[in-house]
Write a structure and sequence with these properties.
About 30% of the residues lie in helices and about 25% in strands. It has one domain: Glutamine Phosphoribosylpyrophosphate, subunit 1, domain 1. The strands form two sheets. Strands 4-3-2-6-5-1-11-12 form an eight-stranded mixed β-sheet. It has a four-stranded antiparallel β-sheet with strand order 7-8-9-10. The protein is an alpha+beta fold. Strand 5 and strand 6 form a beta hairpin.
């Protein structure tokens, strides 16, 4: 089976001066993940490699570069899901993990539970050999400046690159037919401490089922949760002959109509055919497969 990879860097009102940085970040993530697939590697390794690149890039709201909460701390969430087993590994409220996708993978592979939060998640990750970092190591200068503006003045969209949106995600199918999806985020700017959005929730920020396909969502979390966006998109892939792009579009239309929210998603159907849709001004994305080569867009 030909391998396939799709990534996103968030659906939001990406300003003109950030377009190239978003495209370049998505392209680096594609190369990191697709190189794994081309060498016969596992889809799980591919999405971890891709997401790690995005988490390390301060242009995106995940890992380093995450928005700060109301108290001035980064709290990250992440999830990874296996389409074959429907098992997921999810973490939320991380303040001391440089790459939350690594913690999510540890939960997937080594934990009897499917979701851990806060100090418990950090302790589990540490016990699995994932080092803890200083909370300040997750704070980029741009986000510290944005938080200080909000803190001293008023919480306003113009202080931020991605005021309400900015998650990252990846979906991969390898040559053995293994299908995985993942999502990672720093959440919304100036969120209440302890707030958890859609990203680490199964069916909302991420879903994967080998009977249909796999999805990573991005956007306004409270609206995405209302319509269980990722699972909804997978369900639209269930009828025979479903088109991935139309399934993605239908899910985003439901997000707007019933959820009254904005966002987007990327997906691969069970055969690795990509699709994406969004109702925000822009969404950063990238696709890599044998048919298209490497494609990025905003």
């Amino acid at each position: 089976m030909p391998p396939s990879l799709i990534v996103h860097g968030g659906a939001w009102d990406i300003p003109d001066d950030a377009i190239e940085a978003c495209k370049e970040g998505c392209l680096r993530a594609l190369h990191a993940g697709y190189d794994v697939l081309l060498n016969g590697g596992h889809a799980l390794d591919a999405i971890e490699a891709a997401i790690t690149v995005l988490e390390d890039d301060p242009v995106f709201d995940a890992g380093y570069g995450s928005h700060l909460n109301l108290d001035g701390y980064v709290e990250c969430d992440a999830i990874v899901m296996d389409a074959a087993t429907l098992r997921a590994g999810s973490v939320a409220g991380l303040r001391r993990i440089k790459n939350p996708i690594q913690a999510a993978r540890a939960v997937l592979e080594k934990c009897p539970h499917m979701m851990l939060i806060s100090q418990g998640a950090e302790q589990f990750a540490f016990d699995q050999g994932i080092p803890l970092c200083d909370p300040e190591d997750l704070v980029s200068p741009a986000e510290r400046e944005a938080w200080e503006r909000c803190h001293k003045d008023s919480h306003a969209a113009e202080h931020h690159r991605g005021h309400e949106q900015g998650t990252v995600g990846a979906v991969a199918l390898d040559d053995q037919g293994r299908l995985f999806a993942a999502t990672s985020t720093g959440g919304t700017c100036c969120k209440l401490p302890g707030r958890v959005g859609d990203s680490p929730l199964i069916g909302c920020g991420c879903y994967a089922d080998h009977e249909t396909g796999a999805v990573s969502s991005t956007g306004y979390g409270e609206a995405i949760m209302k319509v269980v966006l990722a699972k909804t998109a997978c369900d639209f892939l269930r009828p025979a002959g479903s088109n991935p792009t139309r399934a993605a579009q239908a899910a985003v239309q439901l997000l707007a109509r019933r959820g009254k929210g904005t966002g987007g998603l990327i997906l691969l159907d069970k055969n690795g055919k990509p699709g994406y849709a969004y109702n925000t001004p822009r969404m950063a994305y990238g696709i890599a497969n044998s048919e298209a080569g490497f494609i990025t867009g905003v």
